[in-house]
């Protein structure tokens, strides 16, 4: 309790930098540097889980940055999260989409929630057979983990190509500003550590993005009451830390500004209230997701509530 109060006092009095989040970032970069430096001395089956964990943890750090950690000063936060370990998405684009996702009244709606796993009936009708097959596969956990990374990267590339076609200079500028953060990582990986690009993509980026998609696989479901759209996953300490306790997702939506390291204590304090509010949409760990949904779709791709308060 004393340590937590000390951390909070540093943030509230200085109103400048959050020490635990800064320490998290430092640990991520040290771990990444060590793993990549010793990459050639380690077998792939050691590199892949460690590389994936570090890249996914950096993705969780990016999530905290969207909510003002480690600092409300965008220059400080931008410097802390500058290296793009997963390469594929500018932070400014991710931040805009994630903050739009936090408009809870629009949660899961594919037209207004950028992080929705659903499509509208019109989108579904416009898809070809192959695309529909992929979308069905993505409703399973295996499909999410295997097909999800190339699918979301491909979607980002399509948006970038469309920006070129329509001359969206603002969107293109975000990607141009992103290039130095990619160049820094690739210089370290390829020029200093002599890791081939394909190995970095396969052993670091792919499993890291796959783990990130595991987190978001069951965070939300289609439901008419807003509070019942948000899950709580009671994860083990290793997975909970990986996701900076964002597995306690109902709490995060109720208190988006709460620091990541305070989420477990805040959830314990509000557990009865939150569990009742989300209709007991509670998952007993990620093992339960694997047991129930590895090869079975969790929901259908098309949002089920067209015309019932959703603009579909």
- Uncertain residue ranges: 1-14
**In the residues, how many domains can be counted?**
1
Question: What structural class is derived from the secondary structure elements?
Answer: mainly alpha
- Contiguous helical run count: 15
Evaluate the radius of gyration.
Answer: 20 Å
Mean pLDDT: 94
Percent range for β-strand residues: under 5%
| H-E string | HHHHHHHHHHHEHHHEH
Distance between the termini: 47 Å
Order of neighbouring strands in the sheet with most strands: 1-2
Number of strands: 2
Global morphology: globular
Largest sheet: 2 strands, parallel
**Approximately how much helix is present in the residues?**
55-70%
Describe this structure in words.
This protein has one domain (2-293). It is mostly helical and 312 residues long. The longest helix is centred in the middle third of the chain and has 24 residues, at 169-192. The protein has a two-stranded parallel ribbon. It starts with a helix and ends in a 19-residue tail after the last helix. The protein contains 15 helices and two strands.
Main attributes?
1% strand; 2 strands; single chain; globular; 312 residues; two-stranded parallel ribbon
Topology:
Blueprint: H1 2-14, H2 19-37, H3 44-66, H4 74-80, H5 91-101, H6 121-126, H7 129-138, H8 141-146, H9 148-166, H10 169-192, H11 197-217, E1 232-233, H12 237-242, H13 249-254, H14 263-277, E2 282-283, H15 286-293
Parallel strand pairs: 1-2
Helix pairs in contact: 2-3, 3-5, 3-11
